[in-house]
Amino acid sequence: MAQSPKFDAEALKARFNPEGSMLRRQQMKMLEMVAELDRICRKYDIPYFLYGGTLLGAVRHNGFIPWDDDLDVGLLRKDYLRLMEVLPGELPEHIALQTNDTDKNYFYFFAKLRDKHSVLEEESPYDQVFRERGIFIDIFPFDQMRLWTHLVAEPLQGHTFKIFRTASNRRKAMRTIRLITWCNRHLTFPVLRFISRATGGKTLTYDYGIPFHLVYDIGDIFPLTTHEFEGIQLSVPGNSHEMLRKQFGDYMSLPDLDHLQSHTARLEFDD
Q1: Bond from prior residue into 255 cis (ω within 30 degrees of 0)
Q2: Phi, psi of 105 (to 5 degrees)
Q3: Residue range 225-246: average pLDDT?
Q4: Among 113, 140, 178, 264, which is 20 to 30 Å from 70 by CA?
């Protein structure tokens, strides 16, 4: 069983995300988007779960980690594909779905929901060529497979990030990146998926195209339950403790608060 947190929650909030601060406004936009996602998933009976630092925030802080500037959810691949089908017809006008299909320069193999009334620049350079660049939440697909097939896939798409980072003309480099992404999506990864399923792959990790892996037990995720997150109930893995332990170790202890890293370099709101 998880230990009770040993920190002053109000002091952390005052230091990192007081009401009205840019970070708190960003967090509230993300909360709005995940609430919409939760509504849609409930409507269509699509199971999702908070993941990564967002799950850690739910368990340790009952909401965002005070200094956190992103939000992650996960779904099994079959549920992810169903969600991608229904989202375009369900999202309100001010929230955009960003995938390979909606943004030709988006070369990630997970989806984002984007707020249309903000502009966000990340510390990493990859978003510079994306069409939608507002505040976002990440939606990760997970699948069961032979782990070696994921290890084969990781550098195939991971190489696109190196091409982008080292290119003297990044917009020209996108032609190569789009070609590699198309080949991986429509040729290489389907072959690896077929091999994995034909040989009984059962390792649960990120779907192909996400160039890193963490291994989980599907029994730690399902059956799902709920947990408070910023005053609302959101879906979380049934064994959140084990999920967090595998990813973070002693997850109830705070990190060094003087050496935190942010994903956000610049943020503007329309208003």
Answers
A1: no
A2: -95, 0
A3: 97
A4: 178
CA angle 34, 102, 105 (to 5 degrees): 110
pTM metric for this prediction: 0.96
More confident residue, 133 or 1: 133
Measured distance between the N- and C-terminal CA atoms of the chain, rounded to whole angstroms: 44
Is there a contact between 192 and 153 (Cβ–Cβ < 8 Å)? yes
**Is residue 93 pLDDT above 70, yes or no?**
yes
Residue with tokens 């992404």: 181
- Cα–Cα distance measured from residue 221 to residue 47, given in angstroms and rounded to the nearest whole number: 10
pLDDT for the residue 1: 47
Please report, to the nearest 10 degrees, the dihedral formed by the alpha carbons of residues 27, 28, 33, 36 taken in order.
Answer: 140
* Average of per-residue pLDDT values in the chain: 96
Average pLDDT of the segment spanning 39-49:
98
Buried b (16+ CB within 10 A) or exposed e, 36-60: bbbebbeeeebbbbbbbbbbbbbbb
Using a 10 angstrom Cβ sphere, with 0-12 exposed, 13-18 middle and 19 or more buried, the burial of residue 35 is: middle
Q: What is the mean pLDDT of residues 57-85?
A: 98
- Per-residue pLDDT, 4: 64
Peptide bond preceding 223: is omega within 30 degrees of 0, i.e. cis? yes
DSSP 8-state assignment for residue 116: T
Which one-letter amino acid corresponds to residue 38?
Answer: D
Nearest Cα to 31, choosing from 117, 136, 116? 136
Q: Could you tell me the two tokens for 93?
A: 């006008």
